[in-house]
Amino acid sequence: MNYNEILKIGENVLKKSKIQNPYLDTQLILSKVINRKREHLLLNTNEKLTNNDIIKFKNYLLRRQKKEPIAYILGFKYFWKYKFLTNKSVLIPRPDTELIVEESLNYLPSDKSKNILDVGTGSGCIVISLLKDRPKCVATAIDISIKAINVAKTNAKLHQLENKINFINIDIDKYKSSNYDLIISNPPYISDVDLNRLDDDIKFHEPKLALSGGFDGFRNIKKVIIKSRKLLKINGKLILEIGHKQKNLSIKNLRENGFYINKISKDFSGKDRCIVSTKL
Ligand SMILES: C[S@@+](CC[C@H](N)C(=O)[O-])C[C@H]1O[C@@H](n2cnc3c(N)ncnc32)[C@H](O)[C@@H]1O
Fold first, then answer.
1. Which residues of the chain register pLDDT less than 50?
2. Which of 144, 153, 274 to mutate to test the pocket of ligand 1 (most atoms within 8 A of CB)?
3. Neighbouring C-alpha atoms within 13 Å toward the C-beta of 193
4. Ligand 1 nearest atom to the CA of residue 187, by list position
5. What pLDDT does 129 receive?
6. Are residue 44 and residue 117 in the same domain, yes or no?
């Protein structure tokens, strides 16, 4: 069987299973199997596959048919300007979360060393992107999931930042070290009702610990705000990702805890997604 033939079969199988981007996903799977870029497939459509490659292809295709996200099958995802290893222990980095990186860079001059805390680091995508672009800074990254911490540590090594980021497996409730210039967090903020409405790809494959924000989705945002009050320096910044219906409650909680609201930025679909605030 050649590339062209197997791509057609794969696309049809994924189409029948109502997978969103059947052609693209089939190409990505085939490029993983043969360990070459997608361009190579498209320029060499008559090249033959080995039996071993066909078996591998079928296995990956079956996983995608069962709605496993393509980033878990491929084992990586691009975020900001960098590539991050991803597996089912961590949330897949989302383009919306790049807003935290964009906003944070405004408060991190490239010639200064600032001390950053990342709460709920997951794959480490936010903190690693920041330190790649601001090499003078140092950071601590915490997560309640030891499996997530292990993925984040591997990503830090891949980006030669293992000596710049201190990874700690701890619940934000128990974390005490203070004096940070900047706290960043994309906490789990999906409400119980919305959790059930998510696409199967997310609902059945991404870690619940990384998604669930309790009954109203606000439990973790509130924890991070209250804790940040204690952990930040005066004039330190808190940059938070929020659910698009959580703007007003977040502003109220931030103000009640002594924060000034600097900015609320919208995501690619025009929804309120990121709040920048300052500890007064
Ligand atoms: C929405 S994910 C964000 C992951 C990553 N920062 C990103 O933006 O892709 C939230 C992360 O917070 C972690 N988490 C959940 N509850 C926590 C808690 N109480 N203390 C520390 N981390 C927590 C989860 O394990 C998960 O990795």
1. none
2. 144
3. 2
4. 10
5. 98
6. no
For residue 145, the ligand 1 atom closest to its alpha carbon is 25
CATH of the domain at 201: 3.40.50.150
Taking residue 94's Cβ as centre, other Cβ atoms within 10 Å add up to: 15
| Residue 122 shares a structural domain with residue 245 | yes
Phi-psi region of 112 (alpha: psi -120 to 50; beta: other; left: phi over 0): beta
146 and 190 housed in the same domain: yes
For residue 74, what pLDDT is reported?
A: 97
Residues 104 and 35 in one domain: no
208 exposed, middle or buried (CB, 10 Å; 0-12, 13-18, 19+)?
Answer: exposed
Give residue 187 CA to ligand 1 midpoint distance, Å: 5
Q: Are residues 51 and 136 in the same domain?
A: no
How many angstroms is it from 148 CA to the middle of ligand 1?
A: 8
Q: For residue 73, what are its two tokens?
A: 């099958």
Q: What is the pLDDT of residue 182?
A: 98
Residue 262 lies in a domain: yes
Instruction: State the pTM of this model.
Output: 0.96
Looking at the 3D structure of the chain, how many domains does it have? Answer: 2
Ligand 1 within 6 A of CB of 217? no
Q: How far is the CA of 209 from the centre of ligand 1 (A)?
A: 7
Residue 128 Cα to ligand 1 midpoint, Å, equals: 15
Instruction: Give per-residue pLDDT as tens, 228-237.
Output: 999 999 999 9
Residues 215 and 92 in one domain: yes
Provide the pLDDT for residue 26. Answer: 97
Same domain, 129 and 16: no
Q: β-strand 272-279 against 232-241: which pairing, if any?
A: antiparallel
